[in-house]
Amino acid sequence: MTFLEQLKKVTVVVADTGDFQQIKKYGPRDSTTNPTLIFKAASQPEYKPILEKAVRDGRSKGIDHVLDLLAVSFGEEILKIIPGRVSTEVDARLSFNTEGTIERARKLIRLYSERGIDRERILIKIASTWEGIEAARVLEKEGIHCNMTLLFSLVQAAACAEANVTLISPFVGRIHDWYKKAWNVDAIPPEKDPGVESVRNIYHYFKKFGYPTEIMGASFRNIGEILELAGCDLLTISPNLLEELSQKEGVLQVKLTPEIASASQVQRIPTDEKSFRWFFFEDATATEKLSEGIRLFASDLLKLRALVEKVL
Fold it and tell me: Along the chain (312 residues), what's the average pLDDT of each consecutive run of 10 residues?
């Protein structure tokens, strides 16, 4: 059996793309999108009709409304292909605005509802800032499920779990990138990868203390990182790495299990605002990568905005 076939037996595989053809090819249960992925997809000729329809339907309410319609339109089409959930991201520029995030999330859910799509099939992606986590706390109480993205540290994960969020997306590859630069090395073995270790610690923490929040490893640089996290609740994987996993055969070892987690030495940490901000501030990787990630998502949203403006 291929690694992909075996992985699907122990972990929910999620497609990290907005390209419908790639999603059909690999048959994931769920799919994730963000401004970067939607920009790449919307730039392709075959998706021009979706872009043009969003512009026609939303032009009278302004470009921000068009962007929301575009995100929901891609989500709607993806849900026709997959059996599970799609993640749709809130504007990254709202990452430090709790009320703004709540209102935008409610709007996205409303737009999906107007198309007859149940909120149970939608995850609202929100950056894992303190403000974003507080927004998710409110939204989850309303039955709006959240996927906390740009997550690079245990304290972010623990705060999300305490807020009863549905799912978190700890980023493996971006932590990997940070350490490659900090250590001045060309490569890091997957079993010693700090990004892999971060997700492993989060998994142990959640399972040991009984948090129901799902863990979805994200942002991979190679299949070695993915194989080291076999057994994680979910893994969201880009098409190029899905292809590699589908072409290689071998014996997959399950690395993450609740039994291993229960025996771990991980300790519970405080997640009040003061503790959160201090622990997060002390983590140079998380501090730098969160701010960088928000800037990149905001930048790609502006690129998408420019693309839409050409059609308006």
Answer: 97 95 95 89 91 94 95 96 96 97 98 98 98 98 98 98 98 98 97 98 98 98 98 97 97 97 95 98 98 96 92 84
Distance CA(20)–CA(24), nearest Å, equals 6
For position 212, which CATH number holds? 3.20.20.70
Kindly provide the b/e burial profile for residues 194-233, where b requires at least 16 CB atoms within 10 angstroms of the residue's own CB: bbbebbbbbbbbbbbeebebbbbbbbbbbbebbbbbbbbb
Range of the domain at 31: 3-311
**Tally of domains in the chain:** 1
Mind telling me the catalytic residues? 125
